[in-house]
Write a structure and sequence with these properties.
It catalyses: ATP + H2O = ADP + phosphate + H(+). Keywords: ATP-binding, Helicase, Hydrolase, Nucleotide-binding, RNA-binding. This is RNA helicase. Pfam families: DEAD, Helicase_C. Belongs to the DEAD box helicase family. The protein has 473 residues and is an alpha/beta fold. It has two domains: 271 residues, 3-Layer(aba) Sandwich (Rossmann fold); 177 residues, Rossmann fold, CATH 3.40.50.300. 35% of the residues lie in helices and 14% in strands. An eight-stranded mixed beta sheet has the order 1-8-2-7-6-3-5-4, with helices on both faces. A seven-stranded parallel beta sheet has the order 11-12-10-13-14-9-15, with helices on both faces. α4 packs parallel to α5, α5 packs across α6 and α7 packs parallel to α9. The relative contact order is 0.12.
């Protein structure tokens, strides 16, 4: 990557090689954007197109985003640097090449508002919330690629993901965005680090347990880490999930890095802990009622019993294969059982869950991502972050509940967020078969303030017509 300064920050390209002393770091330049530039960018609301190739989009409701600056003495005239193009964000030309090679058009709202804060000097922590499918991964990927020293091969950025599948997807985004740089990347996930070898890369994408093992075994040097990211941070900090491992990982990184927490949801109890995990952080958040994606139409089907549930699912197969579909269940054995029964009836489906071998999981998700398989039956292992644009239907075969058995509106949002990506249309279908599943759905509906519409299961032709209409309108 052209011209790095002595501190290792990516520097602005300079057309005159004799004037290298005038080159400043990208992060410094972002932090010094003029008030005039910010005011110009703030005039009027910019069309939000996300960080994906342009697609036919639904009219979008402008979301009210609350931003809290940790430093209240910051310039009151320019609390945020708003930009309508990636160029206005001051990104290095090699990163711009990567962005446009991926067919991105303009920054999404989370990128537009977060990146100037992420790249300020001195670095400051951030807690950022944005709807599913709005470009959070690209935001922290660009921040990482703007911070690292390309002359050093030591690990300088760590991204923790809750699942192997999301870690692999995140790595793909970082590699594509950095394709015109000489960034070195590596995984710290199960079966990725050969015994006795060392991790020799600037950017590490990991799952918490594997990262802790790598550092403790001396396979990874964590002394020069500048950026530490928790993707799907609410799940990573949840004490019933990966909270302990995430804390251990943080404590092993002694370099006092910039800590970035990104997620679509932040329950209050997790947000309070997040503030301690990432102290003095800038915050970007949404109101509860703004979390549900407008482009996703939500339905429920009132089934008589478990066997009727399966029958309705089979009847939906033709509609599920119009694009691609994900069926969420609560248990691993349920995923395998449904896949086995549907396959026996002549339907092509695959299952994915955490009990499978790493190689099998990789082959399954890659086949689904490539469109070779149309229907994926899974647990919550891919409920978060997985971005497959062809997915236009999500089925909650089992309604999501917490470990204690309570309705889980956060997981529900993440599940249905696997469809309707970047302004596309999507359907979420909930299967209800008893009082408990009805209670869970009603609680989620009330929490999210979003009506879930009943579809009659007695007339399959009418049911299919309603759903096809929603996908077309």
């Amino acid at each position: 990557m052209p011209q790095d300064d002595e501190q290792g920050w990516i520097t602005e390209s300079n057309n005159n090689p004799e004037q290298q002393d005038n080159v400043t770091s990208l992060a410094d330049r972002i932090g010094g954007l003029s008030t005039e530039k910010a005011e110009q960018a703030d005039q009027g609301e910019k069309a939000e197109q996300g960080d994906q190739p342009q697609q036919p989009q639904q009219p979008k409701q402008e979301l009210e985003v609350s931003v809290t600056l940790a430093d209240q003495q910051a310039d009151p005239n320019s609390p945020l640097y708003s930009a309508s193009t990636f160029e206005e964000l001051g990104l290095h030309e090699n990163l711009l090449k990567g962005i446009y090679a991926m067919k991105f058009q303009k920054p999404s709202k989370i990128q537009e508002r977060a990146l100037p804060l992420l790249l300020q000097n001195p670095p400051r922590n951030m807690i950022a919330q944005s709807q599913s499918g709005t470009g959070k991964t690209a935001a922290f990927a660009l921040a990482i690629l703007s911070r690292i020293n390309y002359d050093s091969s030591n690990p300088q950025a760590v991204v923790l993901s809750p699942s192997r599948e999301l870690a692999r997807q995140t790595m793909s985004v970082i590699q594509q965005m950095g394709q015109f740089t000489n960034v070195k990347t590596a995984f710290a996930i199960k079966d990725a680090i050969p015994k006795g070898s060392k991790v020799d890369a600037q950017v590490i994408v990991a799952t918490p347990g594997a990262l802790v093992d790598a550092v403790r075994k001396g396979q990874m040097n964590a002394k020069e880490v500048k950026v530490f990211v928790l993707d799907e941070a609410d799940n990573m900090l949840d004490q019933h999930s990966m909270g302990d491992q995430s804390i251990k990982a943080k404590n092993l990184i002694t370099s006092k890095p910039q800590i970035l927490l990104f997620s679509a949801t932040f329950p209050d109890i997790v947000r309070n802990f997040a503030a301690k995990f990432a102290p003095a952080a800038n915050e970007i958040r949404l109101k509860q009622e703004e979390l549900s994606v407008e482009g996703i139409k939500q339905f429920y089907m009132d089934c008589d019993n478990l066997e009727h549930k399966f029958k309705v699912l089979v009847e939906l197969y033709e509609l599920m294969t119009v694009g691609q579909s994900i069926i969420f269940v609560h248990r691993r054995d349920t995923a395998d059982e449904i896949a086995h029964r549907m396959t026996a009836e002549g339907h092509t489906v695959v299952s994915l869950h955490g009990k499978q071998e790493s190689s099998e999981r990789d082959l399954t998700i890659d086949s689904f991502r490539d469109g070779k398989t149309k229907v994926l039956i899974t647990t919550n292992v891919i409920a978060r972050g997985i971005d497959i644009s062809q997915v236009n239907m999500v089925i909650n075969y089992d309604m999501p509940k917490t470990a204690s058995g309570k309705p889980d509106s956060e997981t529900y949002l993440h599940r249905i967020g696997r469809t309707g990506r970047f302004g596309r249309k999507g359907l979420a279908v909930n299967f209800i078969h008893d009082k408990e599943s009805w209670k869970v759905m009603n609680s989620i509906e009330e929490t999210l303030k979003k009506e879930i519409i009943k579809v009659d299961t007695s007339d399959f032709d009418a049911m299919e017509a309603i759903m096809k209409k929603e996908l077309k309108d």
